[in-house]
Amino acid sequence: MAALLMNTGAVSMPFPTTRTAARRRTSRSRCQASSSGGSSNEGGGESYRGRSGRGGSTTWVTEYDLYGLLGVERSSPQSEIKAAYRSLQKRCHPDVAGAKGHDMAIVLNEVYSLLSDPAARLAYDQEQAKQSEFVGYTGKPLYSAWFGGEAEQRAVFVDEVRCVGCLKCALYANKTFAVESVYGRARVVAQWADAEDKILDAIQTCPVDCISMVERSDLAALEFLMSKQPRGRVRVSEGNTVGARAPDIFNEVSKFQKRFQEMKQKSATRESEESEAARQSRSSAVQTIRSISNWWYWQPFRAPATTVLASLHLPAPPPSPSMPADPVTDRLQEAAARRKAGGATAARTVASYARRDDYWTPQLNLPSLASPPERPHRRQSASPPRSQTRRATPTGDGGVTLGSIDLTAPLLMAIISAGFVGYNREEVAGVGGGGIQEHVGGAAALGLVNSFELKIVLASVTWFIIGAAIAGFIQFLARSEVNFRK
Questions:
Q1: Of 191, 215, 245, which residue constitutes the final position of a domain?
Q2: Does one domain contain both 400 and 476?
Q3: Could you report the per-residue pLDDT of 353-378, keeping only the tens digit for each?
Q4: Whether the Cβ atoms of residue 50 and residue 58 lie closer than 8 Å to each other
Q5: Alpha carbons within 13 A on the beta-carbon side of 425
């Protein structure tokens, strides 16, 4: 009886257990069982756990963008991070994702534990800010291709902030230098593509001394730092202060390389402390999380409720073929096609760099000064009156041309004379008598000569000629007076 009471007391529970608590306890025991049995993992028998140091801080998280892994912005509040974590955890849980879900669940737990702690999140953001300085730096030059010998340790570098866009270097050594089309500043696109004498002459012709000979080992860092410098389009003015910077790029290059080496050494130390199996397991878990959460990875997490609902009822949508083209992807595809077609990536000529849209080379075939371009004639806003288009113009001997007479007054005289003759028709007919009685041309000619209309025409023509003669004489006198005054 005593033993039975002891057994009953051992299995009895002092408080009632809800279904939620029982489910959490079952899930916790299942995770512990799966984590203890490392033989079920694909990583060669070693299950991935977050490499936590002795101080309890996770060391691998600085290698990844945790915000991008969850599909949230860096400025997202804690509520969005929590909602995104729960949505991903439901899809990456071992009960849903299978055996691989164990590593993914551990990664998500460590990511959420770091981002949910304000102090740890601040430290992570600061470390990421330090590493963001080296984003895009590969240790190779960004712009210039190497055409010199392997023993050559010198390189040509243009300080684009000090450049004034005079184009002299590109004219002297057009294979080595080119002018970038965004800001109009010179840049080295091919190292030692021209003869050394031409390059030295181009350096000497620079009016602001912005071209320098540098060490080949510093060229990649110099071009990378120069790409980060603020600048504007060149302007022809004294000083050319557009794009002026505070630090000197030549003094910053050694510090930059030192910080880069320290970061590489720290990363190498971290990798040496971590086993290869654990590193592969972590990478596989991170990539699987990204592939499963494709919607959240590629799009910002903005509406937690909508996203959670979509994750429960809708599968991850495939990439749409009508998505806007990515410039990085386009460049990669273009480079792959060029390599496949030509098969001569290492034998590219300097002309291929000059033909790119990013640069342009100045030409020497400038227009001659003996034949200046014709200036377009200005169109008059309103056409002048017809009476002003036939005014007198001076000739070589000071006379007046016949077509330059103002015919306004003669026309008025002709109209008035025609009207006067027509108004006094009877008096004009009486003065002339019966007219001509006979004509050589016959009856038709006789009728035309004796017609009243012919008298009107003859009167208007006569007075028009008289008026034109008077107007021409007056204008001749006026023009002579003007010429005399001049």
A1: 245
A2: yes
A3: 444 567 766 665 555 555 555 555 44
A4: yes
A5: 8
